[in-house]
Each structure stands twice: as structure tokens, then as C-alpha cells.
Write a structure and sequence with these properties.
CATH superfamily: S-adenosylmethionine decarboxylase
Order of helices and strands: EHHEEEEEEHEEEHEEH
Strand content: 25-35%
Number of domains: 1
Number of helices: 5
Structural class: alpha+beta
Oligomer: single chain
Distance between the termini: 24 Å
Number of strands: 12
Strand order of the largest sheet: 1-7-6-3-2
CATH architecture: 4-Layer Sandwich
Radius of gyration: 20 Å
């Protein structure tokens, strides 16, 4: 998940990073992951939480499928939380950063939902998308290993899937330009998304369009659009 912002001063860049760090601190990320766990029908076994200096947070949850897990112990400390879990996991890591002299700031959140058994991370996809005000998303779904049917035959894919988009609500799909890059023979599915609507005011921090000249509007628009395109296409553009 990526959020793009433009700031005019070094002070505003620092303020944006502080704002993002507060909006998506370890406590907030923990709340999001707890909700994901509930949506997919899993149980939390343990939680490890860390806020980093100067910025960024990480949360890792070990989860199990089905009924309540065995009693676990959770140790609390400030600013981190550590616990103990079982067979699968959910993690989130945040990366707020900014261009050293270009005014463009970028917030990235990497989310990994790894499951086994009958629980599926795809059921929480819409919730995760809505939990972050994201301009660009890259999503990967990979089926690893195999299971067996009752006769012992290996099943390298035990459910039908043609695209990650099949699990995204239509109203969300309508907001984004989406491209699929799938490798069906390897059970690898990849979808990348970029917002269709571009409202420059949504990308300003501590100022608005009415505060700047037409030349500045054109310059900032070009910078923000380039940042979004480079992230979307995964390469630096001239």
C-alpha cells in the first residue's frame, strides 16, 4: 500500500512523517491485524509489536485455525508487545520516507498474510484496502506446496482462482486502474492498482491549490504523477 504526499518545506516533510507515524503506529496496526484475523476466521496465538526510531512500525501475529488456541502468555513493554503463537502468521511493516530535495513524501505499508488449512487471506482483502488511504497497491497471492485429497493424490491448487480482482468489491475496482500479471502454472497471481481520479489538493500537506501559482501547480502535478507512475510500473522514469 502506498500513500503519496507533497510538502513545500523541510519542516512540513518532518511533520508529515510524524503525522503518518502517529496515524499508523503499532497500536493502530495491531487493531487492523486483529480485525483481519477475525475476518478470515483465525485465532491469535501471540503478538509482537515494535515502534522504530526515527519512524516506522512493525506488528507480527502468529495465528491458528479453528477453535480457541492453547492458553498463551503476553508480555508487555513500552513501546513493544511480545507474545507467543502457532502455525500461520500476519505481519505489517511501515516505511514513511521523503525525497531529500523534491518535496515528495511516500508512505508504504507492507502486509503479509500467510495461512494454511481452510482459512484464506483473500476474504480480508477489501477490509485491508479500506484500512489504508492508498493511492497505489501491489498485491501478490501465492499458493505454496501442496495438500492431498482423500486418495493421497497431491493437489497443488485446491481452489479456483483466475484473478485477485475476483475478491475485490466492484466499488473498489471502479476507483482503480488495475493490471494483472499472473503465472498460472506456478499458482502465482499479481495485481497492481493506481487511483483513477487525480485531485491535486488530496496530495498537499499543510497547504492547498489556492495557496500556489499556476506554474507551481503544474510543477507539483508532474512530480506527484511521476512518483505514482514509477511506483505503479516499478521503474524510474525520465
Amino acid at each position: 500500500m502506498y500513500d503519496i504526499c507533497y510538502t513545500k518545506t523541510v519542516e512540513d516533510r518532518r511533520a508529515y512523517i510524524e503525522y503518518i507515524d502517529e496515524q499508523y503506529n503499532a497500536e493502530k496496526l495491531t487493531e487492523i491485524l486483529k480485525n483481519v484475523t477475525e475476518i478470515i476466521g483465525a485465532k491469535i496465538l501471540s503478538i509482537a509489536v515494535q515502534d522504530y526510531e526515527p519512524q516506522g512500525s512493525s506488528v507480527t501475529m502468529m495465528i491458528c485455525e479453528g477453535s480457541s488456541p492453547p492458553e498463551s502468555k503476553v508480555q508487555l513493554s513500552n513501546p513493544s508487545v511480545v507474545g507467543h503463537l502457532d502455525k500461520s502468521h500476519i505481519t505489517v511493516h511501515t516505511y514513511p520516507e521523503y525525497h531529500p530535495d523534491g518535496g515528495v513524501c511516500t508512505f508504504r505499508a507492507d502486509i503479509d498474510v500467510s495461512t494454511c488449512g481452510e482459512i484464506s487471506p483473500l476474504t480480508a482483502l477489501n477490509y485491508l484496502i479500506e484500512s489504508f488511504e492508498t493511492d497505489i497497491m501491489t498485491m501478490d497471492y501465492r499458493v505454496r506446496g501442496f495438500t492431498r485429497d482423500i486418495t493421497g493424490k497431491k493437489m497443488f491448487m485446491d481452489h479456483k482462482l483466475t484473478s485477485i480482482q475476483d475478491y475485490i468489491r466492484q466499488d473498489i475496482i471502479d476507483k482503480y486502474s488495475m493490471i494483472d500479471v499472473n503465472v498460472f502454472q506456478e499458482n502465482i497471481f499479481h495485481t497492481k492498482c493506481k487511483l483513477k481520479t487525480f485531485d491535486l489538493d488530496n496530495y498537499f500537506f499543510n497547504f492547498s491549490v489556492k495557496d500556489i501559482s499556476v506554474d507551481e501547480i503544474n510543477m507539483i502535478t508532474a512530480k506527484v504523477r511521476k512518483e505514482m507512475d514509477e511506483i505503479f510500473y516499478g521503474k524510474n522514469l525520465p
